[in-house]
Structure formats: C-alpha cells, structure tokens
Write a structure and sequence with these properties.
Blueprint (H helix, E strand, L loop, with lengths): L3 E4 L3 H10 L8 E3 L4 E9 L4 E9 L18 E3 L10 H6 L1 E6 L1 E6 L2 E7 L4 E12 L2 E12 L12 E3 L1 E2 L4 H8 L21 E8 L2 E4 L4 E3 L3
Parallel strand pairs: 5-10
Antiparallel strand pairs: 1-2, 1-7, 3-4, 6-9, 7-8, 8-13, 9-10, 9-12, 10-11, 13-14, 13-15
C-alpha cells in the first residue's frame, strides 16, 4: 500500500458505518501516515457490547513522549509477520479494527491510482494499540497489507494490497471486531493476494491529488 487513503463522509461511507453500527465518519480527505484517522473498535463489558468510532494515530509504534517512532515503518503491518512479530501477534489476536475509507491511493513507477469498490466505500482491516502517556490514553493503528502478485494489480501496485474486508458479511464483521475471538488462525485465509470485491481503479494526478487523468479501470473479483 502506497500510504494514503481518502476519508469522505457521504451516503456510501454512511452505508458502511450504518451496517457496522457506528456514527458516520468525518470528512478528513486524504489521510497519510502519522496523521489522526478514525477507526472502528469493539469493547465488551459485563453489561453490553459496544462498537465505537474513535480517533487513532496512523502509526502503531510511539516514543515515550507520544510521538511516532519513525525507526520502524509501522503504519502498515505485513500479513506474513502478523503471527510471528512481537509487536503484532498479540494485537492481531485481540485488538483488530476496521478503518472506514472512501478509497485508497497506490503508486508505482510515478503513476498513481485511486482504488475503491463499486460501492465507493471500503472497510480496511487493521490492528490497534493503546498507550498511556502522561495520564492520557492514546490509540494507534496500522493497516494490514497482504502479499502482492495478483496480475490484476500488476500495473497499479504489484508489491502488496491492503486487506479489504467485506462489511456486508455480518459473521465476518462480528468475528473480526470481537476482542474475545483470539483464534487469529481463523483469519489466515483472508491474508492472500486474492481480490474479494469488485474494484474501480482510476488513474489520478498524483499521490495527494485525486484529479482523474484517464478513464477508470474495472477490476473484478478473483
């Protein structure tokens, strides 16, 4: 993943958040690593189960003062390390989240595409972490990336794909957001280069400019 996505509040992202039982996202336009984004999490108490749309820094590791730890690029988490990395394996078991997006930006060979679904909304799969710094709880997050190699993405971004979850799949959403669902092996089949939703990829002006430069390309599911 190139490291940018769009967050635009409209009827399309509203359908996503309605299905997941949280309030509508705020329009924050193009989001980049280390910026503040919105994620969907779930917490359980003895009384009830609650899903929330919360602010999080898009960079998993922080320094002691709360700033992003730039020693490691932790805005993305590679799927092949989720089960082994000391940083991610525990979070993948019980601190999974969803990043609601309008679409994401991919760049390769100085050419950029804005990628979204036919419904103009995407549920990106991620993990999150919480720090307590000077008495304040700070939430951080990372988007999971799947291996590249899908020929349909060869000319868009061949190295990796962000994890895109089907938010219409109620059972999957319930499992993904449920913190007591610690059998992370149940999600291994999601972590492939297969495209599980029909996508639209539009050539755009640049990494931070969504102005279309050519006709959109349709990418069908595998």
């Amino acid at each position: 993943m190139c490291g940018a996505y769009a967050a635009i509040s409209n009827v399309f992202t509203g359908n996503l958040t309605d299905l997941l039982g949280v309030s509508s996202i705020e329009t924050r336009n193009i989001r980049v690593p280390a910026s503040t984004i919105q994620i969907i999490t779930q917490t359980n108490t003895q009384q009830n189960t609650e899903r929330q749309l919360v602010d999080a820094k898009w960079w998993l590791m922080l320094n002691k003062d709360g700033s992003a730890n730039y020693k490691y690029s932790t805005f993305n988490s590679r799927s092949d390390k989720l089960f082994s990395s000391r940083l991610t394996k525990g979070l993948f078991k019980q601190s999974r989240c969803i990043i609601p997006a309008s679409g994401f930006i991919e760049g390769q060979n100085k050419k950029y595409h804005y990628v979204t679904t036919e419904e103009s909304a995407i549920a990106l799969g991620g993990i999150y972490k919480q720090y307590k710094i000077d008495g304040e709880i700070i939430t951080t997050t990372s988007i999971i990336t799947c291996p590249g190699g899908n020929p349909k993405f060869e000319n868009i971004h061949k190295k990796s794909l962000p994890l895109m979850l089907d938010y219409h799949d109620t059972n999957l959403m319930d499992m993904w957001l449920e913190p007591s669902m610690t059998d992370s092996e149940a999600f291994r089949d999601l972590l492939t280069h297969k495209i599980n939703q029909n996508l639209i990829a539009t050539p755009i002006m640049g990494a931070r400019n969504l102005e279309p430069q050519a006709e959109p390309l349709s990418i069908e599911t595998d």
